């Protein structure tokens, strides 16, 4: 049985019903992390990880860092 692990942040991002474009998703998460006060290094770490693979990897990384609504 797989359980959902807690994201690395307490940031919530509404993606359900939004544009599924990878750049749109990436931008929304980065803006949310900035608004929550995370530093540039942390955000760059997220961005580097999220863009290091395919679309599925991007989505998995987003879910690793933020809570999706």
Write the H/E string, N to C.
EHHHE
Structural class: mainly alpha
How many distinct domains? 1
Structural Rg: 11 Å
How many β-strand stretches?
Answer: 2
Estimate the helix proportion, in percent: 40-55%
Structural account:
With 69 residues, the protein is mainly α. It has one domain. It has helices at residues 22-35, 40-50, 55-65, and strands at 12-13, 67-68. Strands 1-2 form a two-stranded parallel ribbon. Helix 1 (22-35) runs antiparallel to helix 2 (40-50) and helix 1 packs parallel to helix 3. The longest helix has 14 residues, at 22-35.
Tell me the layout of helices and strands.
Elements: E1 12-13, H1 22-35, H2 40-50, H3 55-65, E2 67-68
Parallel strand pairs: 1-2
Question: Main attributes?
Answer:
2 strands; 6% strand; two-stranded parallel ribbon; 69 residues; globular; 52% helix; mainly alpha; 3 helices
Task: Briefly characterize the structure.
This protein is mainly α and 69 residues long. 52% of the residues lie in helices and 6% in strands. The chain is built from three helices and two strands, in the order E-H-H-H-E.
């Amino acid at each position: 049985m797989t359980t959902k692990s807690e994201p690395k942040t307490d940031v919530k991002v509404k993606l359900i019903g939004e544009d599924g474009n990878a750049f749109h998703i990436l931008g929304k998460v980065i803006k949310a992390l900035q608004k929550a006060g995370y530093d540039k290094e942390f955000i760059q770490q997220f961005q580097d990880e999220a863009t290091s693979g395919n679309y599925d990897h991007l989505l998995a990384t987003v879910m690793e860092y933020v809570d999706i609504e």
